[in-house]
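Mods, move this if it's the wrong board.
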Amino acid sequence: MITTVNRVLLGLAGLILLALGGAVLATGLGLSVPSWWPFGGKGDVLLSTADRTRWRDEGWWWPTVIAVLAVLVVLALWWLLAQLRRGRLAEVLVDSGDGEGALLRGKALEGALGDEAGSLDGVADAKVTLTGRRTAPKARIRMLMEPHAAPGLALRGLSEGALAHARTSAGLDELPAEVRLRAVKHRADRVS
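Not the wrong board. Structure tokens:
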């Protein structure tokens, strides 16, 4: 989600800047520009003094400017915080019984869950991502199903096997999981 938003925003910003830069360059080189373009020659400025000060004495101008700038600041802060937030859980806090606790690497638990889920009958491959808090992790599991697989049996095996083992070994009361199933692409069987 974040990478999609980043790509869209960067693409739009790039297109806008490219269009504006090209138009300014065309005007500076003396090429013809549309009649609605704000300046038409090498000596012109983008905004004249009259354009810059036209709305200054209106009562709505400054509140509107401040509101637009505040929205831009909030959006920029949201974007910055989204960049800093991790998509994966780095570690899981395991209750060791001595009141201290131990830290289990998130990648280790993801690997163990993925290996066990991938070994189920009818599952070609499984990818696991842990999200949430380190005291309450959540699993996102993508399973690639073989053509002969029974999804119900695979989900039951995942729930009763891999997820139950992960909960028990990490000492978690619960480990909610979102599972996405996808079929392996294969050629149609020939019938003779």
